[in-house]
Amino acid sequence: MSQEQLETLLVMDADAIRKAIRRIAHEIVERNTDLSRLVIAGIPTRGVEVAKRILDHIEQIEGVRPEFGVVDVAMHRDDLRRRGRLTAVVPTELPVDLDDRVIVLVDDVLFTGRSCRAALDAISSFGRPARVQYAVLVDRGHRELPIRADYVGKNVPTALEEKIRVRFENLDSVPDSVRVVRAVKS
Amino acid sequence: MSGWTRKDLLGLDELSADELRIILDTAKAFKGVGERSLKKVPALRGHTMVNFFVEPSTRTRTSFELAAMRLSADVVNISATASSLQKGESLKDTALNLEALRADIIVLRHSSAGASRFLAERLKASIINAGDGAHEHPTQGLLDIFTMIEKRGSLEGAEVAIIGDILFSRVARSNIYALNKLGAKVTLVGPSTLVPKAFEKLGVKVAHRIDDILETADVVNLLRIQHERQRKEYFPGIGEYIKLFGLTKARAERLKPGCLIMHPGPINRGVEIDSDVADGDQSVILEQVTNGLAVRMAVLYLCAGGVGLPS
Q1: What CA–CA distance (Å, rounded) separates B141 from B132?
Q2: Are A85 and B33 a contacting pair at CB < 8 A?
Q3: B41: which chain A residues are within 8 Å (Cβ-Cβ)?
Q4: pLDDT higher than 60, residue B56
Q5: For chain B, what is the mean pLDDT?
Q6: Chain B, nearest residue to A71 by Cα
Q7: Which region holds residue A113: left if phi is over 0, alpha if psi is between -120 and 50, else beta?
Q8: From CA B80, how far away is CA B82, in angstroms rounded?
Q9: How far apart, in whole angstroms, are the C-alpha atoms of residue B301 and residue B283?
Q10: Do B70 and B49 form a contact (C-beta atoms < 8 A)?
């Protein structure tokens, strides 16, 4: 009888994560001159944490803190039946008037692109922002939709059967890390 | 926190405090959908919900219908008079036919206690109990509690008085089960014929005078006098009921300033509650209706969602 074991490979440690998020913050500031129009909005759960950290860095760099937001995608996924498992829904938090705003949507991992698609749907049910940009900590490839990120912390080529595991100390009580996880038969 | 793994919602008695909290948290997220310019999300696209109401209802049926529509499900309504139950078809046969039509969710209102469990044990579809006899009305209990928590922050230690026709009330039972689990202190108030002492076995207090609870209650939940279920021997007369148990203007003035006044509707104005009190500042009766939609969206989402919510 073969038993499955998990093999993990560390691709980013706490320092690499901090530097990648700091670079993303610099790039956002460079691309968006008017920070007062900016909303940095995370996709739950860990995208929200990345968004908060981007905001901290922008505040350090520029001395102003753009608005924070949360975009729930669970209720905007259209593949409930296919996935066969539920994601907890949380309230979406966005400014009341989106008309002149630039939203930077933030997620931890970009994979198929379906979360981003769902997030775009969610945003459009609130209003019509001037522009939406997309920032991710890790791009692991395997897109199923024509979606790309404007800001990428690290490109991590993966096999389809592998997983990316992101952990943050303040949420998971283990040091910040990004790992590639793969099942191996032993 | 444990996850959500149920396909059906039959009652609040069988749910854990964690499961109640999962529904309430999910409802909070769905409440936001009603405040957007586009009030619709695709979560249940491709699912079919059948509203199967063997007993009449307007608000619960409409609320479930709107909840399903906001989740992009397809909805069919069947009422008792329009169904083949009138022609003598059994509940089980009607339900099997609904399942053969690939209904994913059946919302059932029935005059017999246990009707929804009967179907849940026999069908693959999710069964949502929308009231079964005098047994339970879980989504009403949930929306009452959602409203209390939204207004008060927590139920821990809250004094909740449920007033009126407890004996025949499925709303009261669902409220009692959930309030007990979430740490509230429940007092049931009504004539001894409608609030027998036996209810104390559920871990609640029983009082036979509304005046006993006015100064201490944080929430008063008034139940409708169900004329259709009353018989003479339970009930002295409307005049006497108002005198002993009606929330009149004079009595409402004795309530604590922050005390919430609730009613599941439909209201008998001037019987359980004075018209002015029902429309007053402390009344959250219409907010209950709005919250009902969010709670039902949450229940439909959770029950239709496949394997379940991981912890």
Answers
A1: 13
A2: no
A3: 75-76, 122, 125
A4: yes
A5: 90
A6: B29
A7: left
A8: 5
A9: 29
A10: no
Sheet containing B219-222, strands listed edge to edge, beginning at the edge strand earlier in sequence: B205-207, B185-189, B159-163, B219-222, B260-262
Cross-chain Cβ contact A72/B306 below 8 Å: no
Burial class (CB in 10 A: 0-12, 13-18, 19+), B165: buried
Local structure of A83: helix, strand or coil:
helix
3-state secondary structure of B285: helix
Residue A181 has pLDDT above 50, yes or no: yes
Query: B176 near B138, Cβ under 8 Å?
Result: no
Burial per residue of B83-92, b for 16 or more beta-carbon CB atoms within 10 angstroms, e otherwise: bebeeeeebe
Report the alpha-carbon distance of residue A49 to residue A43 in Å, rounded: 9
Cβ-contact B72, B45 below 8 angstroms: yes
Q: Please say whether the beta carbons of B101 and B81 come within 8 A.
A: no
Q: Is the pLDDT reported for residue B306 higher than 60?
A: no
Rounded CA gap, A39 and B287, in Å?
Answer: 31
Estimate to the nearest angstrom the gap between the alpha carbon of B90 and the chain centroid: 26
Write the CA distances from B66 to B23, B28, B164, B233, integer angstroms: 18, 17, 30, 40
Separation between Cα atoms, residue B159 and residue B216, nearest integer Å: 7
What's at A141, amino acid-wise?
Answer: G
Three-class SS string for A28-61?
HHHHCCCHHHEEEEECCCHHHHHHHHHHHHHHHH
Q: What is the pLDDT of residue A34?
A: 95
Q: Say which amino acid occupies A36.
A: S
Q: Give the model's pLDDT for residue B1.
A: 41
**B124-170: per-residue pLDDT in tens?**
999 999 999 999 999 999 999 999 999 999 999 999 999 998 998 99
Give the strand pairing for A38-42 and A102-110. Answer: parallel
From chain B, the residues in CB contact with A84 under 8 A are 306-307
For the residues B265-284, what does the mean pLDDT come to?
Answer: 93
Q: Are B107 and B64 in contact (CB under 8 A)?
A: yes
- Tell me the C-alpha distance between B238 and B257, whole Å: 28
Mean per-residue pLDDT, A101-111 = 97
> What does the pLDDT look like over B207-248, one tens digit per residue?
999 999 999 999 999 998 877 666 666 777 888 888 889 999
**Contacting residues of A for B28, CB less than 8 Å apart:** 91
